[in-house]
Amino acid sequence: MWYSNLENKALWKAFDEISRIPRASKHEEAIRKYLIAWASEHGLECKTDKIGNIVIKAPASKGLEKRPAIAIQAHVDMVCVKTADSDHDFSKDPISIICDGKTITADRTTLGGDDGIGVAIALSILADKEAKHGPIEGIFTVDEETGMTGAINIDPSIVDAKYLINLDSETEGEIAVGCAGGMEVSGKCRVKYDEAEGYPLKVRVSGLLGGHSGSEIHLERGNAIKIVARYLNRLPSFQIASFTGGTLHNVIPFSAEAVITVPDKDVALSIAENLRKELENEFRESDPGLKFEVSDTEMPLQALKRKKSQKIADALLSLPHGVRSRIPSMMDTVETSVNFATARLDDKQFSVVFSIRSMIDSKKMAFAEEIETILETYGFTSKASGASPAWEKSDDTEFAKQFIKLYKKISGKTPQLKVLHGILECGILASRIPGLSAISIGPDVKDVHSVNETLSVASSERIAACVREMLPLIK
Fold first, then answer.
1. Rounded to whole angstroms, how far apart are CA atoms 141 and 149?
2. pTM of this structure
3. If you write DSSP's letter for every residue of 190-233 in order, what string do you get?
4. Which burial class, exposed, middle or buried, applies to 91 when counting CB atoms under 10 A from its CB (0-12, 13-18, 19+)?
5. Are 149 and 47 in contact (CB under 8 A)?
6. Positive or negative, the Cα torsion across 113, 473, 6, 43?
C-alpha cells in the first residue's frame, strides 16, 4: 500500500478507504453508506437526519463519563476537478493517490484532502480503543462545497456536543475562531443566434493555478474568464459562437474557452500576440504555467450577433473578481472578496455565477447589490441566494486557549488565532446548536479545489495527535 511506510497507519488506512469512494457534492450516497456500515462494524451508535448528515457516537472512557460531549466534525463531499487529458470518472473511479513519503497528491485530479483528511482523523480516533476521552461524536456533514447544505439544515437533536473541533482548516499552526459569511449571485441573459460570418478562431486560456476562492483569493492568481474577456474587448468586431469558463462557485477559474468569428484574422492574431506577452509578464509569479492561445478552428454554424457579443464581453470585463477589502487591523486578512466563478453560453442564454465572501454581513449584501446592478445594466437578470452568516471572532474562549497550550507542547510552536476568509461549517453549526463552542484546525493542504492539491503527511499526523490528546483535557 502507498501508506505502508507512514507512521499513523490507522489514519492513512481510513484516508485510503475514503479515497476509493465517489463523493462529489450532492452525490454522497456511497460515502454515507460506508460511514453507516463503518459505525455498525465498530459497534458505535449512528444517527442520521433528513438532509443526510451522519453523527457517529463513541462512549466515554472509564472514569470520564461525566465530561461534556465533544464533536470532531468534517464534511464528506469533495470538489471534483481534473485535467483535460484525464479520463477519471468521479462517479465511479477511486482517487489515484501518489505519495512520496512527505506529501500526498492525486494523478491529474483533485485529491479530496478537503475534507477527506478531516473525515479520516475523526474515524481513526473514534475507532481508537486506547484513546482517552469523554463522550465523543463524529459529525459528518453533506454538501459543504456547493452551499453548506448539511450544516445549514442539521437537526440539532442528533448532536449532544458542547464543544466542536472542525477539521476543515488548511494551514497547520492556525486556530480559526471566526470566518467569513458568504452568498452567491447568478446572472442570466437571453440570447439569439445569427449566421456566423468571418474567420473562426478558438480562444483558450489554460495552465492557471486556480485554487480555493476562500484560501487562495489573496494570491492574485489569474481568472481565465476575465482574461478571455480582456481579449474580446480589444477586438474591433467579433461574434461569440461558444463560451465556457470555470467549474464551481468556490474554485478560481483556471481555464476558459471560446469560439468566435472575426472579420480580419490577421488583426485578431496580432492583438492576441500582444496580449500573450502582457499576460506572461503580469502572471510570471502567480501563474507561471499560464497559456493563452488563439488558433484556427472549424466554422460554427451560428453565433451571436456582433452587438450582443460586444455587450456580453463588456459585461464580463466590467464584473468584479478578487479581493475587495482587508480588515484594517489585520491587513493580512481578507475582509471581502468575490470569485467570478463560471460563465457559460448555451442555446438560449449566457449565464454567470459569483461567490461573495465577507467578514461583515452588511458588506456582503452591499457587494451583492453592486454586482446585481452591473448585471442588470448589461441586460442580465440577477438573483442572490445561499446566504450564510459570518462567524463572529471568539478568541477569548477557554476551549481555544486549551488547544493553544496543547499544540505548543506537541509541536514546540505557538499557534496563531485566525479569522479565516474561507467559510467554515462550524460557524453555521454554532448558530444552529445552542451553547456550542467551536474552533477550526487542520493540517497543511495546498492548492485545494485544483489538480495541484497536496496534503502534508507530517502535518496531518501532528493534527491527528493534537486532537487525540485534546479530548481528555476538556472538562
1. 8
2. 0.75
3. E--EEE--SEEEEEEEE-----BTTTSGGG----HHHHHHHHHT
4. exposed
5. no
6. negative
Three-class DSSP category at 151: helix
Query: For position 396, what pLDDT does the model report?
Result: 56
Output the average pLDDT for the chain. 94
Task: Let me know the angle formed at the C-alpha of 452 by 449 and 456, rounded to the nearest 5 degrees.
Answer: 95
Percent over 90 (pLDDT), the chain: 83
Here the cell at position 422 is 474561507
Q: Is pLDDT above 90 for 330?
A: no
Interval 212-230: pLDDT, tens: 898 899 999 999 999 999 9
Is residue 197 within 8 A of residue 261, CB to CB? The reply is yes
According to the model, what pLDDT value does residue 97 have? 98
Active site members:
77, 144
CA distance 437 to 401: 12
Q: Which residue has the higher pLDDT, 266 or 448?
A: 266
Q: What is the DSSP letter of 162?
A: S
Question: So what's the pLDDT on residue 387?
Answer: 84
In the 8-state DSSP scheme, what is residue 165? E
Tell me which of 293 and 427 has the higher pLDDT: 293
User: Which residue has better confidence, 18 or 328?
Assistant: 18
Backbone angles phi, psi at 182, to 5 degrees: -145, 170
Contacts within 8 Å (CB) and 24+ apart, 125-130: 125/72, 125/464, 125/467, 125/468, 125/471, 126/42, 126/44, 126/56, 126/58, 126/72, 127/10, 127/14, 127/42, 128/10, 128/468
Sheet holding 103-106, edge to edge: 97-99, 103-106, 454-456, 445-446
Contact 170, 444 (CB under 8 A): yes
Name which of 249, 206, 235 is nearest 339 in CA terms.
249
CA distance 175 to 167: 10
Q: Which domains does the chain have, with CATH numbers?
A: 9-180+391-473 (3.40.630.10), 183-388 (3.30.70.360)
Q: What is the pLDDT of residue 434?
A: 87
> Measured between alpha carbons, how far is 272 from 265 in angstroms, rounded to an integer?
10
Query: Is residue 466 very low, low, confident or very high in pLDDT (cuts 50, 70, 90)?
Result: very high
Q: How far is CA 332 from the centre of its chain?
A: 20
